[in-house]
Structures are given as C-alpha cells and as structure tokens.
Amino acid sequence: MKNLFAALIALLLPVLASAQFSISGKITNQAGEALPGATVTITSPATNTQTDVKGNYQLSDLPAGSYTIKASYIGYQTTLQTINFTASQVINFSLINSVFSAEEVTITATRAGRNSPTAFTNLSKKEIQKNNFGQDLPYMLAQTPSAVVSSDAGTGIGYTGIRIRGSDGTRINVTVNGIPLNDAESQGSFFVNLPDLTSSVNNIQVQRGVGTSTNGAGAFGGSINIQTNTRRDTGYADINNTVGSYGTVKNTVSLGTGLLNGHFSFDGRLSRIRSDGYIDRASSNLRSFFLSGAYYDKNSTLRLNVFSGIERTYQAWNGVPDYVIGDPTRKDNRTYNELGLMPDSTYYKDQVDNYQQNHYQLLYDRKLTDKLAFSGALHYTKGYGYYEEFKRDQAVTKYGLTPVVLGGTPITNTDLVRRLWLNNDFYGITYALKYQAQSNLNFTLGGAYNRYTGAHYGNIIYTAQSAGITPNYEYYRDNARKTDFNIFGRGEYKLGDVTLFADLQYRRIDYSFLGFDRNLNNVQQEARLNFFNPKAGVTYEIDEHNNVYASFAVGNHEPNRDDYTNSTPASRPKPENLKDFEAGYRISTDAFKGGINLFYMLYKNQLILTGALNDVGSATRINVDDSYRAGIEVDGRLKITKQLSWAANATVSTNKIKNLTRTLASYDDDYNPLTPVTQTFKKTDIAYSPSLIVGSEIAYSPVPNGSIAFVSKYVSRQFLDNTGNVNPTGYSTSPDVANNPYAVNRLLKAYFVNDVRLSYNIHTKAIKNIGLGLLVNNVFSKKYEANGATYPEVDSGVLVNYNYYFPQATRNFLASVSLSF
Predict the structure, then answer these.
(1) CA–CA separation, 16 and 329 (whole Å)
(2) How far, in Å, CA of 319 to CA of 317, rounded?
(3) DSSP per position, 459-488
(4) What is the C-alpha to C-alpha distance for residues 365 and 302, in angstroms, rounded to an integer?
(5) Cis peptide before 45, with omega less than 30 degrees from 0?
(6) Using CB atoms within 10 A of its CB, is residue 485 exposed (0-12), middle (13-18) or buried (19+)?
(7) pLDDT per residue over 441-458, tens digit each?
(8) Which one of 95, 119, 154 terminates a domain?
(9) Where residue 29 sits, what CATH number does that domain have?
C-alpha cells in the first residue's frame, strides 16, 4: 500500500507542478472607493494588469510559488505584498494617499477632536445622505442632541429654523469650510438661500455650548461646522429625483472627474426644488449649483469652490392666528395664511421673497514641515434681492410723502405694494497654522478678518390711489458696514492619560448703521466692541474606549441689527456674556457609542426673545441681567445585532430668568396710547426652551442593501414669551375665548411625532447603484406646532395677546430614486 501511494504521488508531481492558479482582488483607497486603472504587477514571471471600473483585477495562469505583488496608482503610495501560494487567492489592497490631505487641516482648525472637553456630534456623509430627500439642512440635524427644528411652510422646505439648547439660529455659529455663513447683521443663517446644500456636504460637526474658537459670531447655543465635498479619486455621475406630498419635486445632478493625472479634480452639482408647502400660499421655488476644482501635489492643495442659490418663496413667516387654529368650523383652520390679503378678499400673487446668494471660496493648504501645516482662505459672498408685499391702508406720511389733494380731499392713506431690498457684500480672509511640536503636544494659531457692507432700501411700485410718487419711488435707504477681526490660539498637551486643553480668542467688531440718536434723529452711528473669550478643559482617558472631561468657557456676543437700529444709545441693548461649564463621559466600542454631558450656562445681559416678531419675522429682544440654562444630555448608539441598531438621545434641562421686568404698550378704546404697563416676574421660564427633548431611531436591515428605520422625536411644551404663562387674566384675540383651546395659553404644546424611512440599493453592471428611498413624515398624522409668536399689549386695562403659530404638516411622504454611475 505504501509503495502504491508513493507511486501515485510520483506520477502526480509533474501535474501539480504544472497546475495554473490565479490571483484576484480589489484596489481601493482608504475611504473604500474603488480605484479603476490601478496597476498590479508581479515579477518572475513578469506580468501586470490594470483594475476595471470597479477596482477589480485578476492575474491568471500562474504556477504555484512565491510572488511579490505590487499595487500602484497615481497620487498614492505603492504597496508591496509577498505571498506563497499553492491555490488561487484573493488579495485586496487599500492604498494610502501620497499627496497632502488638505481638507484635514482646513477643518480641524475650528473643530473639536476625540479628546476635546466639548459636547459635540459628528455626522458623516453617509449619515447625512440617508435623510436627504430635499428638506432643508436643519432637518438633517433634527436627531442630534438638544436640537429642535421647525418650518414656516410646515414641510421642511423653504424657510426653516433650528434651536440648540433653546438658543435660536442667531446664537448658533455656522461655518462652511471654516468660513462664516451667519448674516453679519441679523446673525441668522438662512439655509433657504443655499437649497440642497446637503447634496454637496461631506460631513458636519455640531458643537453644543460655547465650544472651540471659530470664525464668525460667537456660539451661544452651539455651532454647526460644515465641510463640503472633498477629494474623490474616481469619476462619478449621480442623478437623484424626489417627489412627494404638497407638490414637492427635487431634481439633482452631480458629476465628478475623480483624480486626473494625480493632481486635478473637478466636481459639480445642479439642483432644483419646488414645493407648494403645507401652509396655504407657502410655496417654494429653489435653484442652486455647486462647482469645485482642486489641485493637489505632495505638500499642498488649492481648491476653488463656487456655489449659489436662488430662492423665491411665498411669505409664510407670520404664522397662523390662534383663533383660526382654534376654530373647528373652519375647513382650513390649520393652513390659513393671511399675508397678501387684499380688500376684495383675494390674495396678492407676488407676496414673495426673492433672493440670490453667490459664494466664492479659495482654499489653500500646505504642509510646511513634518510638524507645521498652514491653511488659509479668501472668500466673497454676494447677496441681492427683495421681498414684495401688499400693504393695506397705509398712511402716506409714513413713506415721507405729503398727502395729495384730489377734488378738495387730501389722500392721506392708500393701499400700496412695496419692495424691501437688501444688497450686501461679505468678504475676508481666514487662516490657521497647526504646529505638532511633539506627539503629545500641538498648537493652533488661527483667526480671520471679515468685512460686510449692506444696503437696505425700500421702493413703492404701486399705489391704489394717486399719492404723488414717481415710478419706483425710494422711501428709505440705510447703508451699513461691519468689520469683524478675531485671532485665537489653542493648544493641547497630553500628559500620560490626561489631556490639557486651552483656547484663547480675541475678537473686535466695528459696526456702522443708521439708527436713532438721543434726540430721535435717524443718523449714522458707530458701535465698537472688544471681546476676550478664554476656554480651558481637561480630559482623562480611562482606557482606549472611555474618557471623562470637564471644561469652562467664556463667550461674548454682540446685539444684532434690529437691536441697534430700533433703539437709542440710552436704550440700546448691551452685549451678552456667557460662562459655560461642561462635564461629561464618553464611551466608544464596536457595539456601543455614547456619552453623558452636564452643562450649566450662566448668562449676563442675555438678550431674550419677547415672543413678538417684527414685520419680516425677526424676533424682538431685551436684556435680562441674570439667567441660566442647566441640564443633562444623554446620547448613544447600540448595535443590537448585525442587522438591528438603536440610536437615542435625551436632554433634560431647566432654563430660567431670575428676575424679569417687561413694559407693555397700553391703549384706550379708540386705540389712543396710554401710560405703558410694567410687569415683573420671578424665576420664570425662558421662551422657546423645552425642558425635555428626546430623539430615537431604530434601524433594521431585513435584507442585504435594504433597511427600514423608525424615527421619533418628543419635545415638551415651550412658552412663547418669558412670563411662564402665569397671568390668567390675559386673553387672545379669538372671537370666542371660552371655546378656543389656544386662548390664554401662550405656549407651544408638547408634541411627539414619528417618521418611517425605507431604503433599498441595487447594484448592476451598467449602473453602479440604484437607490430607492421612501420617507413618511409624521406617520401617525399628529397635529402640532413647532414654532410661534405672541404680541402682548394692554387694551382698555385688559392684557391682550395676539398669538400666531406655525402648524407642521400631518402625514406626508417623500419618495426618491437615485442612480450612480
């Protein structure tokens, strides 16, 4: 038997020696993207091949033996691997960039890192895009801790807003590639001006509280740091189409060349979004584009971004009166919009907001030495547009006109149509030097100089009666300018398991505006402010998965345009000061990631919302001496099984003003002014600050490439003013106060809404990916309001509140089909 076995082996040896095998695999970059055209080489015998469009390769007819395999691609480090094989094998390669990765330097200058003693949430491109059905960018952040979003139109398209820890958009610092997005005067961020920006976003970091030093206005509730698309090494073409309720349509086309000759890349996007809105006459017609070109070499990157948005939205920023919502006999009792109502009970068709905003960013990054890197940017933003509105029975003297006498009768009042224009320019420079002194010590020196000029003016384009005006009569003009300079230094020193953090910022603001002087003359005035914002913290790493941290930060914030222009030097609001104490614990494992954060935000001279809005939806504010926000934030993501995961967060907080004094206008029966009425309140709630915010997302993948998610959000009640609704004698304007559930209650009721999101991806030879998506919002058709306003006054000795709400859409859907090539 042994002899027979030996004989068989002897006979088979020549066959085995001559057997032919293959080596196959896939070549990708570190982001997991396929690298078509990469070269795979072996020696002895010398042979090579190139990867196909999906990055796959195969070397066939190879005898058993030892081989050294070399994978190479322009712009990447060559990788070698030696193998011994007697059978076919699969060998994959992940290549490392050989050129300087500029985006990392650009973005880390203003971001929190893994060990930063700051509360933050990072969102990847994948996490952002799974929710991208055409709604505005704040809705992509709706499930981050302490966030509450709202929509004027009720659908998430058009004018939208976000609050973090109860602070509105004027307190949230927003940057795009480190460049400020907040309007220099109003300080808000109007994402409607950049529709479908989400489709060009690579990642977002949301910081809560003061956070790290950044460019632009100070963060009083949080900051949103947006990074647009970064380098993609392979060419692509993406087409996305969405349709949905209320006439919603979104079309997006994205193209990219990938890395050309190891040095160049070009990317572009074109989008349009249209929606009728849930609120009556709250339509949106939005268009945008994004273009980016970059040059890479071994030590530097130069990138030019040009992006623009054009919006035309029917005005819905006044909300719906409470007596309409509270009247069950009205068929349209939740979608009524009174803006543009004409004497004949029709509506003015051009009661719209028209605005275009163009952005130009030139970003340069260079690795100066192994320890020193520089990033800098030049930027320019041009905004131009107006909102047009019908105004009934306007006094001509209000527009600087002398009443015209016709037939012996002076024309003192008339219906008219006016346009309020804004023509503004914002430009400047940002920079950062990052020095890695040692592996455990780094410094960042950064800052910015920005300049803003804004021309505000109004035209009358129509009057119902002859008022003696010339065509396109200009009745006011206000030219403003603002310069904003800041410089900051930040350092981190790791001593064993302890990381020490320090951040010092100096900021100077010079603002020139047309405002009232002490004699109530409207004259050009100046405001100069100097702020020093120190921050310090410590992080202790328990092990590679767990750390604890604590920090203290100071933030200062200037009043906005309306605060200045609607006051005199004697009544002008003061700048705000915030002392922010944070402490927390973070854990990160394969199965669970999460954390707990405690915060105490102590304000001096906080500018609080009164609950009222001006005629374009901007909030009116007053200083309060002492106020605070204190609470706990909990968030986590649990991977229950390979197919099932659960992400949840909750914020429990108390938000109080220690002593509040407010003065209300008072009128008699004929609406003649009387002596104002003063009210005082002790330890009352801050407006728009819910005490409980909870978010949840349960995701399940029942089949490969398919998933279903159940998304929930609970927001407790919020008051529309800062009185805590403690005055039961006040009533609303409802004709039937007794039967109106909204009467007296100057608050937003608690709401709990649930969405369902489904997705399925199909891969084919011709099309890299076919993505199918369905988002059912408010699946249980909950009726609720996410925002509102109140205007209190005293009429004939009785407190009256004019309350308005923004109802959000009941059950609605968005369905999408995307093709990737």
Answers:
(1) 90
(2) 6
(3) EEEEESS--S--TTEEEEEEEEEEEEEEEE
(4) 7
(5) yes
(6) middle
(7) 999 999 999 999 999 999
(8) 95
(9) 2.60.40.10
Domain at 247, CATH number: 2.40.170.20
Residues 345 and 366 placed together within one structural domain of the fold: yes
Q: Is the pLDDT of residue 519 over 80?
A: no
| Residue 526, both tokens | 């100046």
| pLDDT tens for each residue of 403-418 | 888 777 888 889 999 9
One domain for residues 551 and 640: yes
Most confident of the ranges 85-89, 533-537, 622-626: 533-537
Parallel, antiparallel or unpaired: strands 89-90 and 20-29:
parallel
Q: Are β-strands 692-700 and 644-667 bridged in parallel, bridged antiparallel, or unpaired?
A: antiparallel
How far is 452 from 471, CA to CA, in rounded Å? 30
> Of 203, 228, 253, which residue is a domain's last?
228
Rounded to two decimals, the pTM is 0.86
Q: What is the DSSP string of 745-798?
A: --EEPPEEEEEEEEEEEE--SS-SEEEEEEEEESTT----EEEEEEEEEEETTE
DSSP-based helix, strand, coil % in the chain, nearest 5: 5, 60, 35
The 10 Å Cβ neighbour count of residue 398 is 10
List CB contacts of 203: < 8 A, sequence separation 6 or more. Answer: 122, 123, 124, 125, 128, 227
- Measuring CA to CA, how many Å separate 548 from each of 553, 576, 585, 586, 591? 17, 30, 4, 6, 19
Q: What is the tally of structural domains in the chain?
A: 3
Same domain, 41 and 172: no
Query: Could you tell me the residue range of the domain that residue 745 belongs to?
Result: 236-820
Amino acid identity at 353: D
Contact between residue 56 and residue 93 where contact means Cβ atoms under 8 Å apart: no
Burial 671-688 (b: 16+ CB within 10 A, else e): eeeeeeeeeebeebbbbb
DSSP-derived secondary structure letter, 114: T
Return the CATH number at 138.
2.170.130.10
Residue 273 in contact with residue 195, Cβ under 8 Å?
yes
Residue that is written with structure tokens 């403003």 in the block = 480
